[in-house]
Automatic annotation (TrEMBL):
It holds the Pfam family adh_short. It comes from the Bacteria. One of its GO terms (cellular component) is cytosol. InterPro entries: NAD(P)-bd_dom_sf, NADPH_pterin_aldehyde_rdct, Sc_DH/Rdtase_CS, SDR_fam. Belongs to the short-chain dehydrogenases/reductases (SDR) family. This is SDR family oxidoreductase. SUPFAM superfamilies: NAD(P)-binding Rossmann-fold domains (SSF51735). CDD domains: SDR_c. GO terms for molecular function: oxidoreductase activity, acting on the CH-OH group of donors, NAD or NADP as acceptor. Gene3D superfamilies: NAD(P)-binding Rossmann-like Domain (3.40.50.720).
């Protein structure tokens, strides 16, 4: 087992975030996570208990993220591994038929939410001159399909944002855009329907993804990576 780390995960209430929280905790790491669902966050806190910490935070709300970061850094210090996992996908539709609200929500969570988390947590990581930042991208951050233009726009943005961030960071720190693969979660079901069942469950994916994340090193910084599932 590797030395215990502080692992910060956004979007822990469901899907990949929740599966990673359980796997990191099983490996002896301290998990700090957030999501919007009060019920899911309370349930997770009950299931995993202290020293893990789960909070109701909407990453699109800069003040909520700022307050959360102050509280976390005061309690456990800056994260060693920061996973910007929270995201939304648009209802599948041609771009010109997309509601303004649906478009804006995807941009707000998938790009501005990631920037909010980076703004409030990464300064303390830079002061300590260590840490790994992983921004969840997608196959749709490297290629495109019809019906998912807003989501593609955000994940292509994450690729650029993260590679530029890697160049901002001091030597030894790491920033990576990560394609997690294709996994059966609520998000996948919303665009693949029943066909999502042909892909691995989040818990199975986490068995490979978590050791992969723990193995990221300085020479990986700035490289677009994919979980080898
Ligand atoms: N599943 C796949 O096949 C796949 C493929 C490629 C990339 N990805 C990427 O992998 C990541 C995880 O995806 P997933 O499939 O696990 O999605 P998911 O099942 O839909 O879960 C998304 C998580 O993000 C949280 N979230 C959404 N908006 C939020 C906000 N404003 N503030 C805080 N938390 C928020 C949700 O919790 P609340 O609703 O409680 O806030 C939920 O916990 C995403 O970045 C996604 O784009 C997934």
């Amino acid at each position: 087992m590797s030395k215990p780390r502080i692992v910060l995960i956004t979007g822990v209430s469901r899907g990949l975030g929740r599966a990673m929280a359980f796997k990191f905790a099983e490996f002896g790491h301290v998990v700090v996570g957030c999501g919007r669902s009060r019920k899911a966050i309370a349930g997770l806190q009950k299931e995993l208990g202290a020293p893990h910490r789960f909070s109701v935070v909407d990453v699109t709300r800069d003040t909520q993220v700022s307050d959360w970061a102050s509280e976390v850094i005061e309690a456990v210090g800056p994260p060693n591994l920061l996973l910007n996992n929270a995201a939304l996908i648009n209802p599948v539709s041609p771009l010109w038929e997309m509601d303004c609200k649906d478009f804006d929500e995807v941009i707000d969570v998938n790009i501005k939410g990631v920037a909010n988390v980076i703004r409030h947590f990464v300064r303390a990581m830079v002061e300590r001159k260590s840490g790994v930042i992983v921004n969840f991208s997608s196959g749709w951050g490297r290629e495109t399909d019809p019906g998912v233009a807003p989501y593609c726009a955000t994940k292509w943005a994450i690729e650029g944002l993260t590679r530029s961030l890697a160049q901002d960071l001091p030597k030894g720190m790491v920033a990576i855009p990560l394609n997690p693969g294709i996994i059966d979660t609520d998000m996948l079901r919303s665009c693949f329907g029943e066909e999502a069942g042909n892909y691995p469950a989040a818990e199975v994916w986490a068995d490979t993804a978590v050791p992969f994340l723990l193995g990221l090193k300085a020479s990986d910084s700035g490289k677009p990576l994919t979980v080898p599932i």
